[in-house]
Structures are given as structure tokens and as C-alpha cells.
Amino acid sequence: MKYDNLQLSTKNRVAQIVINRPTALNALNPATLKDLDLAFKALSEDDNVHVVILTGAGEKAFVAGGDISVMQPLDSQTASRVARLAQRLFADIESFPKTVIAAINGYALGGGCELALACDVRIAAETARLGQPEINLGIIPGWGGTQRLPRLVGPGKAKQMMLTGEMVTAAEALQIGLVEQVVAADQLLESAQTLAEKIASKPQIAVQLIRKAVNNGLDMPLDKAIEYEADLFGLCFATEDQKEGMAAFLEKRSAQWKNR
Ligand code: DAK
């Protein structure tokens, strides 16, 4: 399938989606959001793909936000409706049946930062800059930022970022837990691919259960979340991979995962 605003490729069970509107710093317009929606739907059904890397075209930007020229004329009702559409896409990415890694190659601002927040893991180039500058446009983050950012970096730091609109460097983002790894810009995609292949080589049912336990458990009281963990833990014992993983350990050999 051809996309107007994305490039999609696959290597070693890892798909790479490149958001490709470099002249607008990869800002998300409705057509790009639609392409992303279609690409994730297609990848969810592709059994050869276990992990997805999301990045931006060019060296300057991951995604510089929602497209401001599209947003500017919206009335209140349309803005809420469009916000919900993108929120649904970002929620689909968060609960996607495969791991999603953001490879942040430059500016990740506004909706771009929110897109990265919906991913499982964020790797940034040293040159990346992240922020929620919506306050400077007279709006608030509308694609999950007010909720996912405080869950990741804590409410104080999140409010500081959103109230000032100031960007943080990749090094600061690492320090506050907004990204998990920082690498040289020319190593970004290679590092993301290495991490992706490592995750792709693990038993995928357990991978998905870990993602579920963390994502869903964070919204529960601790006692309920611990019960939920026990249920998911029990599910692992219905898989061939649990039998194989433990047999392989006891027989001192490498496990051969079947993802069953
Ligand atoms: N939208 C549209 N075009 C953008 C853009 C954006 N977010 N960011 C950059 N561009 C365009 C610029 O207009 C410019 O286009 P030309 O003038 O060349 O035609 C080109 O990309 C290059 O940008 P600059 O010339 O500005 O490049 P600089 O290196 O000087 O500056 C910058 C880079 C990233 C610091 C600067 O471009 C910048 O501040 N960009 C805007 C950052 C920002 O405020 N992002 C948006 C946050 S708001 C919605 C709900 C929520 C949202 C959307 C919709 N609905 C309910 C509909 C999300 C909101 C946001 O994300």
C-alpha cells in the first residue's frame, strides 16, 4: 500500500514508519493522521512484524506538532471532534498489539511529543528537542499530553513544561524520564533497530502481556493492579513458550520460541 505522507519498510520482523512531510517539519495534518491510522491497521494484521519503529523524515524534526494552519480556523465543536479522532489513534498506538518505539530524530513538539508519549519506548537523538508549546498558541495539549506526560515525568515537571511551553533537550528529557535512551544522531535508527530486534526475538505473548499489565495497571488502584498482574501471569502458563522457556533453562540450552 502507498501512503502520501509516510514511508513504510520492514526488516527482520521490525517495521519502520517514517512520517514524511519534511517541508512542514512533519506536522500532523488530517491526511497524515489518516495514513498513520491505515498503516497501524495494516501492521496489526502482519504476522511478520513484531515491533514498529516510528520516526520522522529528515534531520530536523520527528513531528513539530499538529498542523497549525489546519487548526487555526477551527471552531470549538470541530476542534473537540478532531481532538477525539487523533486521541483515538494515539490510544490505538498505545494499545497496539505489537511494541512501538519512537525514534525521535529532532523536534517532538505538541502533538509530536504526544505521539511519542503514546509509544512504549522513546529513543532520542542528542539533537532532539521535546516540548508542549501549545500554551504559546493559546491552547492546551489536546492529544493526551495533559494525561500521559504527568504519568511519565510526574505532575510537577509536566506542569512546568506545559505552563512555560519551553522545550527540553534530549539530555534533560533523559534525566526526567521523558525518553529512555539518548544516542548520537547518526546512530539513532541503528540503535532503535537493535532494540526493536531484541524485543522481537523475545516470546511475543509475554511481551504483549507485559505491555498490557503496565498500561492497564497504571490506571488501577495498586491492589487491583496486582490482582490483574496475577491473572496475566497465570495466562503465561497456558502458552507453549512458558513450557519451552523453562525446559530450555533446565536443559541448559537456548529457547526456541513459537509465539504460541
Ligand atoms: N504546523 C504547520 N507548519 C509547521 C509547523 C506546525 N506545527 N511547524 C513548523 N511548520 C512549518 C513552518 O511553518 C515552516 O513552513 P514554511 O514557512 O517553510 O512554509 C516550516 O515548517 C519550517 O519551520 P520554521 O521555518 O519555523 O523552522 P525553524 O527552524 O525556524 O523553527 C520550530 C522550528 C519547530 C521551532 C518552529 O517551526 C515551531 O515553533 N513550530 C511550531 C511548533 C508548535 O507550536 N507545534 C504545535 C503545537 S500545537 C487538534 C488538537 C491538538 C493538536 C492539533 C489539532 N485538533 C483538535 C484539530 C495539536 C496541537 C499541537 O501540536
Return the string of H and E elements: EEHEEHHEEHEEHHEHEHHHH
Query: Which stretches are low in confidence, meaning pLDDT under 50 for 5 or more residues running?
Result: none
- Just name the CATH architecture of the largest domain: Alpha-Beta Complex
* Overall structural domain count: 2
Q: How is this structure best described in words?
A:
This protein folds into 2 domains: 6-200, 2-enoyl-CoA Hydratase, Chain A, domain 1 (Alpha-Beta Complex); 204-250, Orthogonal Bundle (Lyase 2-enoyl-coa Hydratase, Chain  A, domain 2). Helices cover 48% and strands 17% of the residues. It has helices at 30-44, 68-71, 76-94, 111-117, 145-153, 155-164, 170-176, 188-200, 204-217, 222-236, 240-250, and strands at 6-11, 14-19, 51-56, 61-63, 99-104, 107-109, 121-125, 129-131, 168-169, 181-183. The strands form 2 sheets. A 6-stranded mixed beta sheet has the order 1-2-3-5-7-10, sandwiched between helices. α1 packs parallel to α3 (76-94) and α5 (145-153) packs across α6. The protein is globular.
List its salient traits:
260 residues; alpha/beta; Lyase 2-enoyl-coa Hydratase, Chain  A, domain 2; 11 helices; globular; binds 4-(N,N-dimethylamino)cinnamoyl-COA; 2 domains; four-stranded mixed beta sheet; six-stranded mixed beta sheet; 2-enoyl-CoA Hydratase, Chain A, domain 1
What is the secondary structure topology, with strand pairs?
Layout: E1 6-11, E2 14-19, H1 30-44, E3 51-56, E4 61-63, H2 68-71, H3 76-94, E5 99-104, E6 107-109, H4 111-117, E7 121-125, E8 129-131, H5 145-153, H6 155-164, E9 168-169, H7 170-176, E10 181-183, H8 188-200, H9 204-217, H10 222-236, H11 240-250
Helix pairs in contact: 1-3, 4-5, 5-6, 9-10
The chain binds 4-(N,N-dimethylamino)cinnamoyl-COA.
